[in-house]
Amino acid sequence: MELLIVADDLTGALDTALPFVREGISTRVTADRTLAAVPLADDVQVLVVDAETRHLPSEQAGHSVAKIVKCAKRLGVRRYMKKTDSALRGNVASELGAMLEASGGKRLCFFPAYPEMGRTTRDGVHFIDGVPLAESAFGRDLLNPVKTSAVAGLFAGMEGISVQNVSAGTAPFPAGKTREILVFDAETAEELRSGYLNWAAGEETAVLAGCAGLAGVMAELWQGPKCAGVVQPVQAKGLLVLCGSLNPVTQRQLAYAAANGFCRLRLPLPEQGGLEAPECQGFLREFERACRENGRVIVDTRGSGAEALPLGEGPEWSVRIPKLFGELFVRWTAWRLDQAAFITGGDTLLGCVHAAGGAIQPVRELFPGVPLNLLETGKGTAPVISKSGGFGAETLLEEIGRIL
């Protein structure tokens, strides 16, 4: 195994694995943080681990990442990448610091930009479609608002590690005596590519961080073994959309799809228990009828009404809602309707994967940042399209519905 990638949620893990799969590089995705149950065949080059740390306290998230890195280090891994959210949500500072320390490295090269998706970094400031990060919709995120646009600001108060911005085109310089994190500017795909090529591509031992944009560059410049990829066709007669994201971009996508033939339903929240509750039975009948008759169905926490479901006083709803989506997903797979599922939001996807009790493997990319995966369930293999919230054209769901 040449490369360990640690992501903080499942959609991020799949996004990051996909460029390597596309290049024919043997890649595995797992949620096993001990790596004990991971079938690491001799040909596996890249292992992507979903650490599920997005919503953990900072210190706990760092400990989780450190444990994964130490397990991989015992297996002989010498190249590490911490997958970060393209909008810098989550425990970026503690997780990067933990990876650097656990790996034994002196320098971590951080490439936060993803120019093809409108994420750019200039003079150490991160932008979303030209808007400083903290002033974008991600600065108002209900669960994980980002308070600073300066990448170095995320590391304020961190001890024992220095943080330095590196402008595009800067020539490499030796690492210092103490641990350091270098934050690289990139406003174009070529600047991202040249930054990685000049600073990290040739290093046998490297500690890196970045989003799926960096993963794409690393896969493109991969020097290890490759095999011919097999393109698997999508075979689906309809599309079920399960959405736990309240991001405005995602909500516009849902509204557009509902105005263009999708049936949109609101996920019920029973006072106790799951979807077996009496108050959920009407919804379940309507849901099954829509799946069988319409074939293009959205279930989200807002539905066609104006008010979203409450997130609750504390973490309750953030735990319950993914479980309810997972229960609904399992019911849907039991009908064997030859449909595909489109699941947006890492928590929602993980709830479905856990409920199905199977493994998920990326197959290919339908649109930028939108992979097609195969999920093993008790009823066979289900095609599952996954996407993080917060990006894509408002026509995305309608376009996916058409190609199916």
Structural commentary:
This protein is an alpha/beta fold and 404 residues long. The chain folds into two domains: 3-220, Rossmann fold (3-Layer(aba) Sandwich), CATH 3.40.50.10840; 239-403, Four-carbon acid sugar kinase, nucleotide binding domain (Molybdenum Cofactor Biosythetic Enzyme, Chain A), CATH 3.40.980.20. The protein is built from ten helices and 18 strands. Strands 2-3-1-4-11-5-10-9 form an eight-stranded parallel β-sheet, sandwiched between helices. It has a seven-stranded mixed β-sheet with strand order 13-14-12-15-18-17-16, with helices on both faces. It has a three-stranded antiparallel β-sheet with strand order 6-7-8, with no helix packed on it.
Low-confidence stretches: none
Instruction: Report, as a whole number of angstroms, the end-to-end distance.
Output: 36 Å
Give me the CATH architecture of the largest domain, please.
Answer: 3-Layer(aba) Sandwich
The count of domains is 2
Broad structural category: alpha/beta
Strand content: 15-25%
Strand arrangement in the largest pleated sheet: 2-3-1-4-11-5-10-9
Number of β-strand runs: 18
> Helices and strands, in N-to-C order?
EHEEHEHEEEEEEHEHEHEHEHEHEEEH
Indicate the radius of gyration in whole angstroms: 21 Å
The CATH topology of the largest domain comes to Rossmann fold
Shape: globular
CATH superfamily of the largest domain: Putative sugar-binding, N-terminal domain
Taking the sheet with the most strands, its summary is: 8 strands, parallel
Assign the CATH class of the largest domain.
Answer: Alpha Beta
